[in-house]
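Example record

One chain of 132 residues, shown exactly as stored in the release files.
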Amino acid sequence: MTNFDVQAVDLSSILSQSAEEKAKQIPDPVTYHLLCMLPEAKEEYEGGLLKANQTMQFEELLSPVLFVAKIGPDAFKDEKRFPSGASCQVGDFILVRPNSGTRMKIHGTEWRIINDDSVEAVVEDPRGIQRP
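Predicted structure tokens for this chain:
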């Protein structure tokens, strides 16, 4: 049970919106926050065996890999905490602790808002990275 009134939402108007209108629904992070998207889990193992839906969901939700979509205006500005400057930029894949940040789904895609100091590493190619 959620606290949202489903009756008050006109789903037909949301589903019929253009891609541009849907993009406007993506939140802008404020202060020192980053808006990140979780990459989708692969549907099959390397050997070709299909994964169970629950396995895919766990891989996505507990993934340490995020894609940086937007950065708040005050992120990485504290020179004492970030003497080398920003840890990442928009378009980077980053590593964070699993379950970091505020989780939300927007049009079926999992997103997170994290603090700027949650970034632990930047990776060029995250395809081989998974939780042990």
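Notes: DSSP finds three helices and six strands in the chain.
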